[in-house]
Amino acid sequence: MAYIEVKHETRKFIQGDQETIANHDISFNVDRGQIITILGPSGAGKSTLLNILGGMDNPTSGQVLIDGTDIAQFTAKQLTTYRRQDVGFIFQFYNLVPNLTARENVELASQITHDARDVDETLRLVGLADRAKNFPAQLSGGEQQRVAIARAIAKNPKLLLCDEPTGALDYQTGKQVLQVIQDGARQTDMTVIIVTHNGAIAKMGDQIIHINDAQVQSIQQNPQPTPIADIEW
Ligand SMILES: Nc1ncnc2c1ncn2[C@@H]1O[C@H](COP(=O)(O)OP(=O)(O)OP(=O)(O)O)[C@@H](O)[C@H]1O
Fold first, then answer.
1. Whose CA is nearest to atom 13 of ligand 1?
2. Which intervals of the chain form a coiled coil (predicted)?
3. Residues 45-83: pLDDT tens digits?
4. CB atoms < 10 A from the CB of 10, how many?
5. In sequence order, what are the residues at sequence separation of 6 or more whose Cβ sits closer than 8 angstroms to the Cβ of residue 142?
6. Containing structural domain, residue 84
7. For residue 154, how far is its CA from the centre of ligand 1 (angstroms)?
8. Is 9 inside any structural domain?
9. % of the chain with per-residue pLDDT over 90
10. Which residues, 6 or more positions from 133, have their beta carbon under 8 angstroms from its beta carbon?
11. Among candidate residues 231, 233, 209, 228, the one with its CA nearest the CA of residue 9
12. CA distances from 17 to 13, 20, 44, 48, 214 (A)
């Protein structure tokens, strides 16, 4: 059984008399431990889909089975537990707490889960052991994003969701961050979903889901993902 099964997922937003269909009849499967990329232009519906997978939003219709359980049917309380225990998030703009050190930012996440990873070991994993006492403002963009990755991974999530994780970074730093995400995934057996509008980055996925105009345009199996060192954009 696939770890994620999205079946006919649709999300409509209604504002006044205007209806926007952000996701229309979306279906795909993801195996446990896969890295998949969701590729599409601005406004295609990628973030909407990621929010639904992360339990931050509910679809209007359809099923979102995670490990066999339909989270589309979850109550608000069940969704909170799911987000807390099972999901790590990485966003374009890091979202670190500015008055906490790198270590404290990571600790914050590890404290709310049962099965957290060791904070110092996780900082080592992202190559930031020696910056643990620094505040976000004392770190570069790439380092801040690595703290955000450590924070997400420290929860030991089953699912890591990344929304344009390199969107605010330069080319070289962006590649380092992708490498950290990939290494983290391979070492922890997380399932990873990366949203991007960048076709070159999408090639790091074991599966590339092309989304356009709210719909799945194609699903490309990618048995030989491009090594990050070889990705160029
Ligand atoms: N809360 C909302 N209320 C109304 N419309 C929304 C809402 N969230 C998203 N939309 C609309 O749904 C569509 C898809 O948006 P979404 O943010 O999912 O796209 P995206 O592919 O992630 O785009 P981007 O790459 O620019 O972030 C857009 O037309 C957007 O305006």
1. 22
2. none
3. 999 999 999 999 999 999 999 999 999 999 999 999 999
4. 16
5. 169, 173, 174, 176, 177
6. 31-58+73-230
7. 29
8. no
9. 80
10. 101, 102, 103
11. 209
12. 10, 10, 21, 20, 20
Averaged pLDDT score across all residues of the chain: 94
Q: Name the residue with the closest Cα to ligand 1, atom 7.
A: 13
pLDDT of residue 115: 84
2 C-alpha to center of ligand 1: Å?
27
Is the confidence at residue 221, as pLDDT, over 90?
yes
Q: Is residue 68 part of a domain?
A: no
Centroid of ligand 1 to alpha carbon of 109 (angstroms):
27
11 CB near ligand 1 (under 6 Å): no
DSSP 8-state class, residue 220: E
CA of 53 to the centre of ligand 1 (A): 15
Q: What is the predicted ipTM?
A: 0.97
CATH of residue 117's domain is: 3.40.50.300
In terms of phi and psi (left: phi > 0; alpha: psi -120 to 50; beta: otherwise), the region of 165 is: alpha
